Amino acid sequence: MNKVYIDGKSLTIEDVVNVARNDYKVELTKESQEKVIKARNIVDKFVDEEKTVYGITTGFGKFSDVVITKEETKTLQRNLIISHSCGVGECFEEEISRTIMLLRINNLAKGNSGIRLETLNNLIKMLNKGVHPLIPQKGSLGASGDLAPLSHMVLVMIGEGEAIYKGEKMSGIDALKKADIEPVELTSKEGLALINGTQVMTAVGALTVYDAVNLLKTADIAASLTMEALNGIVTAFDKKVHEVRSHQGQIDAAKNILNILNNSNMTTTQGEIRVQDAYTLRCTPQIHGASKDAIDYIKKKVEIEINAATDNPLIFPDTEEVISGGNFHGQPMALSFDFLAIALAEIANVSERRLERLVNPALGGLPAFLTKKGGLNSGFMIVQYSAAALVSENKVLAHPASVDSIPSSANQEDHVSMGTIAARKAREIMSNVRKVLAMEMLGAVQGIDLNDNKGLGIGTSIAYELIREKTKTIEEDTIMYKEINKCEDLIVSNIIVDKIEEKIGKLN
């Protein structure tokens, strides 16, 4: 059985993907179990002593000055969950629900939250047995963490809410019964420990970052196919050009494209047909490379966050301190995911401009709209329209969420991050980028056919054959969305990247 061991400090994005998509099971390390128990002992001590500590013996937010008695602690925690379950809109996909649970488990495993080990084990059982809470996408301000969506996760733990189990939607209590899991009765600090954190925004962002790495490789492949369709000049990708600027992403993009195009008979050199290409061809390494560098930065930030303690208050067992701070504030992720949105949007921007060069005879020299019988046939005319619409939509979505804030909890929480909105927008943009790249690739292979294919590069020949296994050269007008969807399916499956890497080595 494939398994990821949880210790609160060494989870990777690759681990996240394996749990989210490949059904890896999770298990707490012995060390993390001991830390959880040690922190819980501090909570129990303070409750027994009736010490005034935020979130343990007090209310929440503006009610932090309201003292809660020992007898009321269970009611307090249940009320917290049911009152905070205010998420709205469509629910997250199951893979994101799994990721949310995983990240919350890892956060709690650090031993700074004060949850009981049996409660944490309940969440682990849900993840391992495939009980996936239905978590609405909207309703989080990103500080105090992702309160509303995480509350929907906890609803199922206490036998409320709704879940998906084995592909079927049902009540939370029915899902638990079918999976042979007992609901939990939360006690002091536990409700707050489960919902006060950044795990929803980070879950969405982590999967998006992982997918973005592969999507940038696909963008290099798409650009390479367009280079061949337009007899692009490869001289501009000479490593000497990029090494004197020294940005690693730019160097990597240029290297990728040269390796993909190696042995091509469809590309040219400087002065052979023309002296230089337009920016969207010539500057591809600079444009793609900047996004690669951005994604590398964001990936590092996400890897910090998935191993961070982000709830409040935090418990430090060695000194028996409980400190109320602000690690739930999503600003580090909000800025990162806004950056991710912009970096991805630019990939669609340049891809659509390359598509325009393919369909515009004044720019690329190919038959107008990539059809031999223009007028009778529209060819790829409206494919470019659709790409342009997606690019324009991305520009709206790329507006930073993190520059906005709105006070909440009677101005006790007077600056919030909007980090979950930033993550969701970045994921929506990525979906649009995939579609634009699919349109470019479909147009590029059509252009290659119209330009009398004289032999493609080592990498592009693989991409071409995979696309042509699913699509045919378009001689007469056809229903285009079906062809676009076939190309997008190839991108989602990552088979083009995988097959090229098998042949020429890992792309950067």
Automatic annotation (TrEMBL):
Coiled coil: none
Keywords: Cytoplasm, Histidine metabolism, Lyase
Catalytic reaction(s) noted: L-histidine = trans-urocanate + NH4(+)
Pfam family for this entry, one: Lyase_aromatic
Pathways involved: Amino-acid degradation; L-histidine degradation into L-glutamate; N-formimidoyl-L-glutamate from L-histidine: step 1/3
Modified residues (2,3-didehydroalanine (Ser)): S144
InterPro entries: Aromatic_Lyase (IPR001106), Fumarase/histidase_N (IPR024083), HutH (IPR005921), L-Aspartase-like (IPR008948), Phe/His_NH3-lyase_AS (IPR022313)
Crosslinked positions (5-imidazolinone (Ala-Gly)): A143-G145
UniProt KW Lyase keyword: yes
EC top class, as a word: lyase
Subcellular location: Cytoplasm
EC number: 4.3.1.3
GO terms assigned for molecular function: histidine ammonia-lyase activity
Modifications made to the protein after synthesis: Contains an active site 4-methylidene-imidazol-5-one (MIO), which is formed autocatalytically by cyclization and dehydration of residues Ala-Ser-Gly.
Source species, domain of life: Bacteria
Family: Belongs to the PAL/histidase family.
Classification via PANTHER family: HISTIDINE AMMONIA-LYASE
UniProt protein name: Histidine ammonia-lyase
Organism: Tepidibacter hydrothermalis
Protein's gene: hutH
